[in-house]
Amino acid sequence: MTAPLEKDRPPRVTEREARQVAEAAREQDWRKPSFAKELFLGRFRLDLIHPHPLPAGEDVRRGEEFLSRLRAFCESSVDGALIEREDRIPDEVIGGLRELGALGMKIDPKYGGLGLTQVYYNKALALVGSASPAIGALLSAHQSIGVPQPLKLFGTQEQKDAFLPRLARHAISAFLLTEPDVGSDPARLATTALPDGDEYILDGVKLWTTNGVVADLLVVMARVPRSDGHPGGITAFVVEADSDGITVENRNTFMGLRGLENGVTRFHRVRVPAANRIGPEGAGLKIALTTLNTGRLSLPAMCVGAGKWCLKIAREWSAVREQWGRPVARHEAVGAKISFIAATTFALEAVVDLASQMADEDRNDIRIEAALAKLYGSEMACLMADELVQIRGGRGFETAGSLAARGERAVAAEQLLRDLRINRIFEGSTEIMHLLIAREAVDAHLKVAGGLIDPDTSLGDKAKAGAQAGAFYARWLPQLVTGPGRLPTSYQEFHPAGHPDLATHLRYVERASRRLARATFLGMARWQGRMETKQGFLGRIVDIGAELFAMSAACVRAELLRGGGDGHGREAYQLADAFCRQSRLRVEELFGRLWKNTDDIDRKVVGKVLAGAYTWLEEGVIDPSGDAPWIADATPGPSHRENVHRPIP
Q: Region annotation Disordered: residue ranges (predicted)?
């Protein structure tokens, strides 16, 4: 194999340069209040989420009407087992989704879409994802991160008029950012877009293009070189998927989500009109991150659907399966798992619905809330699915097809575990989400004290930063000493007669919020410029914040349901109480691990592993992986493979 030319390799960038690219892409200002941002600063702003915001009556009517039609379609026309067996969503199913208007759930009615709110869009994804996770992924990739959302936020009127009606009715879209050697470090993006008159010429290779195999329209991120009249930078384009020079070289297959139309797409001298550029040159990453602020809510929404199904199967199975003379649910070891699934599903739905409703109202900045929902939902859903497999025992490990073949109910517990696993990687891995959220959580500190810990800051600027930081911390630190969480009478509306006491949990959240802020400050004071390398510490800080957000959302939702007149208020309070008690145990463990952990020894072991000091430990096994390169060659040029692009008729 010929080695790629140096000029064709992804740009070599330092760690600092990569951070600078990411920093330039994030939203710099906070123009609206943020509950989660305040939570990390030690300020428990319950007033920002309570009373729980509610959708407008007309939004509810339209949303419920669509959910009714979607449920009927899924029950009559979607065979999830068939999709799992054949590794493909039937064309007629996609045709039926088009007729329902499912491709245009979030598109404004004036362009032919349904104009659903974020709340009902997420409910629709949870519903359809329970019928087939592959369909949920297709619809989510199309609307949450595909062409419609960037155009809605950043597109010109001409672009909206040209593309949104197609996308609402029949055209499937995909989002193309990742490359074979470029993941969460877009500073190394290698795909180029060279200006040529009124066009750009795209060259490069994109990996893991969800919907890319069947897409009609693509959002492509490419690097525009700087030149006269062109500021350059990573830029977003709408590209017709059948353009000359585009080849889908492979349809990828995975451990789960069979039916996912995910591929490798090569661009060779693909001409794209300049009119198809979304926003200015260099705005591509900002567009992608802003799109994900609400787009990330689709994954935890489908995790809510998974939790609901886990609870249903666990309840039904555990009531009929007997061991030692009684149903397994009555054994404490199994009962604890069922309680965890029930309480966590309640809390996760509370988190998603609250963040979604706040997104619809647009009163708050929800960038942290949406990221926490994605992080927390993807992690907890995997745990719930794993517990369901354990509750089912050997049947949990057995495929649905095998169960059916021997005359038992085809419960696809093992499939759910496989399908959910990708959510911890999709749209920002857990590790990247920890860093992203941590960056936002310490934003206020960096704005006032960043100059003190930046090694490149001059002495004069450090002095100015010191004065600014001194003034900020003189006001802020005293606020962390005490608060409403110390008063036994605080939040008493959350302790109505005859209901569990949720006020005590909210007081805990308030105290823990201040404790979390103090820990963050101590970490910054201790490590200063090295804080960004303390990923274990930052991950625990974020995980504590996620638990506190989930507890807050669960309590607020329970109070909403108590006053809703549907008769579930008492049960909602019980679930919220159970969740908060479970969550508090996790929070206390995380607080303890902030300062007592194995991070230092882990780092030493990793160094030894990479140096080859433990290769003797690898002896005695056979590696069947083969000897192909770890990362496929992505040198730009014409494709020499068959085009497997398969647009749906």
A: 1-27
The residue among 412, 416, 391 whose CA lies nearest residue 400 is: 412
How far is residue 5 CA from its own chain's centroid?
A: 36
| CA dist list (Å): 190 to 7, 20, 33, 222, 252 | 10, 17, 37, 7, 21
**Residue-range domain boundaries for the chain:** 23-50+433-601, 57-171, 174-281, 286-428
CA 317, CA 309: separation in Å to the nearest integer?
A: 12
Residue 528 is predicted with a pLDDT of 84
Q: Is residue 516 within 8 Å of 541, Cβ to Cβ? A: yes
**Percent of residues in the chain assigned helix, strand, coil, to nearest 5:** 60, 10, 30
Closest CA to 186 of 172, 204, 212, 213: 204
Calpha distance 330→508 (Å, rounded): 31
CATH class of the domain whose range is 174-281: mainly beta
Yes or no: say if 35 and 364 are a contact pair by the CB < 8 Å rule: yes
Using CA atoms, how far apart are residues 20 and 15, in angstroms rounded to an integer? 9
**What distance in Å separates the CA atoms of residue 252 and residue 264, rounded to the nearest whole number?**
7
Q: What is the pTM of this model?
A: 0.94
Q: What is the CATH number of domain 286-428?
A: 1.20.140.10
List Cβ neighbours of 456 (8 Å cut-off, separation of 6 or more): none
The CATH code of the domain at 57-171 is 1.10.540.10
Tokens of 191: 């795909």
Whether 427 is a known active-site residue: answer yes
Catalytic residue among 84, 349, 427, 559: 427
Residue 34 structure tokens = 């943020």
Residues whose CB is less than 8 angstroms from the CB of residue 359 and which lie 6 or more positions away in sequence, other chains included:
118, 294, 297, 366, 370
| pLDDT tens-digit series, residues 483-538 | 999 999 999 999 999 999 999 999 999 999 999 999 999 998 898 878 888 999 99
